[in-house]
Amino acid sequence: MENNGSLGRVTVQRNIKILMKKTILHVDINSYFATILQQENPHLRNKPIGVIKDGGRTCLIAVSKEAKKFGIETGSRKREALILCPELICVPAAFDRYLDTTKRLQKVFATISPSVHIYSLDEAFIDVSDCRKNLYPNIKDLGNCIHDLIKKELGEWVTCNIGIAENRLLAKMASEVAPKGTTLEITDENKDALLASTPFKDVCGIGYALSKKLKLFNITVPYQIRFMSEEELNIIFGPFWSKELMKIAYGEETHLLSQLDKKIKHMKSVGRSITGYHLYENDIEIGNVLKNLCIEIISKVRVMNLAGRQVQLGLYGQEKGWSTHVTLRTSINHLNDLIDWVSKLYLQWHDKFPVIKFAVRLSLLKEQDQEELLPEWQKQEAVQRAFDSINNKYGIFTLHPAAIPPRNELIFPEVTGFLGDKLYQLREK
Ligand SMILES: [Mg+2]
Fold first, then answer.
1. Residue 420 domain boundaries
2. 30 CA → ligand 1 middle, Å
3. 125 CB-near residues (< 8 Å, 6+ apart)
4. What is the pLDDT of residue 2?
5. Residue 32 Cα, ligand 1 centroid: separation in angstroms?
6. What is the per-residue pLDDT for 88?
7. pLDDT value at position 362?
8. What is the CA 194 to chain-centroid distance, rounded?
9. How many A from CA of 28 to the centre of ligand 1?
10. Do 57 and 125 share a structural domain?
11. What distance in angstroms lies between residue 202's CA and the mean position of ligand 1's atoms?
12. Is residue 14 part of a domain?
């Protein structure tokens, strides 16, 4: 009798586990930046394309699948890429249209499940756990349906990879290793094979430094980690990564990916960095670039009705870098305040070097729920509101402080592939 009881409990527990097993899809558009340009311009199709930020740039921020066949990778220099493939066509990116396309994708995904997480500009996790049984009894059919829906919405040239698994880690790994334009489902049968064959570079969250360290110890695939002791892992990778690596070894979701369940009310910081067109040595020129970045940050922060009290500044040369920050007592969201604080931080930079990359960030953001009573603040707010209303209507740099970079060197807002500011870009208006 007792045995039956405990067996019954085990069966019930197992059933609950089976019932609770999730179904997550990871959809990843193939060579997004290049594919969208090829969709818009049929003469670019079937040709090796390198996408550059704009006319004066030399770094390829994306490459088409045809260019990848020549060994050209994202991040390659144009000059080196042309040696590998002299027919390479370099095309400027179309950031506004990429974002528009992502919003269209978001609408497509919303028709599949109410639980969608846009992970980057061209990637999304779709959780169909709750609706699988009734709506998608054959999950492979759903995969095919998504391929068709994307082609219908974005065009015939646009293909994607789809990974299906019980969690986000495995779903993303599956879409990473699936042949281009296909769906791969990970089940209990093929899970270990995936973990034993996927290189760490294709595992979400493993950065450059960590993958280098893993390589140093001849650890190339997640499955190998299973044969290491906790103590050994701890010594080499530290307490956080030893746990995370063990999770990855067994195909469990990592901390980074499980954080996606957390509802984030608003952005914690808004920053902007840019690699300049040339090396900057002149204080006035550098100041103008920094003002340019401040304008973008304040416009985003104000649109979201936020204010921040930590200002960070980073300046980077070809070999050197310098950064600092200040934490303020009260939050700011007026342009002149941010410019003032960035200027004060700039004055702390003594060991000067020619600058190629600039970074400004306003952090510790909170909702700006009440106005300050100080007359000076009220005056600034009135000026800032007038500034906002003109720039919101006629474009971001219509009204600007006296000195910013010349028009042809102005840095306009743009989206990044990883869509770090998605709460701003995909906000409901
Ligand atoms: Mg992609």
1. 270-425
2. 5
3. 24, 25, 26, 116, 117, 119, 168, 171, 172, 260
4. 43
5. 5
6. 96
7. 97
8. 25
9. 5
10. yes
11. 12
12. no
Query: Closest by alpha carbon to 76, among 88, 56, 60, 57?
Result: 60
> Residue 62 C-alpha to ligand 1 middle, in angstroms?
10
Residue 275 falls inside a structural domain: yes
Predicted TM-score (pTM) of the model is: 0.81
* Distance from Cα 182 to the centre of ligand 1, integer Å: 13
Report the CATH number at residue 259: 1.10.150.20
Q: Which structure tokens are listed for 131?
A: 């609706």
How many angstroms does the Cα of residue 222 sit away from the middle of ligand 1?
A: 22
Q: How many angstroms separate the alpha carbon of residue 407 from the centre of ligand 1?
A: 33
Q: How much distance in Å is there from the Cα of 161 to the middle of ligand 1?
A: 8
* Ligand 1 centre distance from Cα of residue 193 (Å): 23
Give mean pLDDT in consecutive 10-residue pieces for the chain, a chain of 429 residues: 48 54 95 95 95 83 94 92 95 90 94 94 94 87 95 96 97 96 96 96 90 93 95 94 96 92 88 89 93 93 93 95 95 94 96 95 90 83 88 81 75 76 78
Which residue, 263, 286, 313, sits at the end of a domain? 263
Residue with token string 């527990």: 13
For the chain, the domain total comes to: 3
3-state secondary structure of 309: strand
Distance 164 CA to ligand 1 centre (A): 16
Tell me which long-range contacts 345-349 makes (C-beta under 8 A, separation of at least 24): 345/311, 345/313, 346/286, 346/287, 346/290, 346/313, 348/324, 349/315, 349/322, 349/324
- Together in a domain, 132 and 258: no
- Going from the Cα of 33 to the center of ligand 1, the distance in angstroms, rounded, reads 9
47 C-alpha to ligand 1 centroid (Å): 18
d(CA 76, ligand 1 centre) in Å: 17
Q: How far, CA to CA in Å, does 332 sit from each of 12, 230, 292, 370? A: 56, 46, 17, 12
**Distance in Å, CA 232 to ligand 1 centroid:** 35
Report the pLDDT value the prediction gives residue 251, as an integer from 0 to 100.
96
**How far does Cα 67 stand from its chain's mean position?**
23
d(CA 99, ligand 1 centre) in Å = 14
